[in-house]
Request: fold
Amino acid sequence: MKSRGAELAPVTDVLEQGWREGVAPGLSVAILFRGSLAHASAHGEAQVEPVARPLTPGHLFDVASLTKVMATATLAALLVAEREIALDDRIVRFLPGFAGGGRDAVTVRHLLAHASGLPAWRPYFEAAMRDPVAGLAFRPPAERTALAEAFARGRAILRAAVLAEPLEATPGARALYSDPGFMLLGWVLEKAGGGPLDELCRDRVFAPLALADTFFVDEHADASHGGTPRRREGRVFAATERCEHRGEVNCGAVNDDNAWAMGGVAGHAGLFSTARDVAALGQAWLDALRGRPSPLDPRVALAFARRDGAPGSTRALGWDTPSAEGSSLGTRLGRGPLGAIGHLGFTGVSLWVDVDREVVAALLTNRCHPSRENERIKAFRPRFHDAAAAALGL
Reply:
């Protein structure tokens, strides 16, 4: 049930064991060590219902909140280096509607550090579902019509809702992981960069890093021309949830409903990628942090990798860092003086970068296929990272 390239036998063993235990239908991994590929393999199935399909290394995964670091935070770092935005710019400068109720004080830094005072999550998509136009996107696939108009309306509904979202805390007073904060940040970057988020990321992040298999599926743009979205043609995807309110098993369409309501492109979710591309993005950050040539500016990368000052926070800018106990990175990696940066995603994905030992570990799974009730990934992630470290002699 496995497909592989370079291989570390103990890593293969733990992945096969995880698959047998039902951690996820499919697991795809790429591990880089000191800049070279140490392990790459795929295990299990890309999909188990309504039909079974085996997983290969070429399958694309919905990387969920890895969008926040691979797309949004990386683009932000590039725009900061190019002085198109500054970390202490106030959001109201770019989005005048985000004013009043203390929101005028929220900065780019606050959004990146999840310290804006915004809530963790809101089901904004429910307002889109109720709307007679935006709601068309939530009909079963065979009944969906006028999708270009539906996604445009959904984007307007969600944008208005996020801009009006009251703060729950004073900016900088707490850290609370926030999807609305990264939705806002995506719109800030569009304003600063002068284009749609997916195009800015394609041209300024993914192309320079040669990430040919990393992209947003822009449902809105492709619906304008009819037919299958161009980004899905000729590609294979790992399935995610069986979604009753969208009438389908999500596959090649973003699992996150807030992102779906906006057409699949958002600052918090929407990206698709492979394990090797995810690892390559991590390597670009590692190279910058170690002062080697990289599209990322080393000084900006260091600023983004430094823990924020919000009380009790483990968050850096965009990135997370290992907690003292119970980290998904396990017990072996990320313990040196330079530490580690990483991020998780709801669909069962993760990226961790050990800066001292120069290990980049990308673990992609579809643990929420067909149901999000499967949470075995939480216990599996540290096991996987400890096995990888041991296999590398660390």
